[in-house]
Write a structure and sequence with these properties.
There is one protein chain. The longest helix is centred in the C-terminal third of the chain and has 20 residues. The chain contains four helices and no strands. By secondary structure, the chain is an all-alpha fold.
Length: 110
């Protein structure tokens, strides 16, 4: 059931929103990775605690802030899509926000 929902979401992105193939591949990796790590079989059973556990493991592995931000975005958009279609009651990823990403600014000589 979880993989069917992922495939529906990715098809929606491809056909209705015109998202690039690279973005779709990244979202697929993110969502399937979350499903495997959390052992989710049905989107309705995913809780905020499961998402917190997933991101705790990613932090412990040393995932970079940009990677975490993309994964948060993937999950938020996925569950927003499911909520719009009444497949889930609430978006369990809604409370998460992307981490601050430090930008490199070179020093200039005068």
């Amino acid at each position: 059931m979880f993989e069917i929902a992922i495939n529906d979401f990715l098809q929606h992105l491809r056909l209705e929103r015109g998202v690039s193939a690279n973005t779709i591949m990244a979202y697929r990796r993110d969502l399937i990775g979350f499903g495997k790590e959390s052992k989710a079989t049905d989107p309705k059973t995913v809780t905020a605690a499961a998402i917190t556990g997933y991101f705790s493991k990613l932090n412990a592995k040393g995932s970079r802030p940009a990677t975490l931000a993309r994964k948060i975005s993937s999950l938020k958009q996925f569950f927003d899509y499911l909520k719009e279609r009444n497949m889930v009651a609430e978006n369990p990823a809604q409370v998460y926000s992307a981490p601050k990403i430090a930008r490199y600014h070179p020093d200039y000589l005068s």
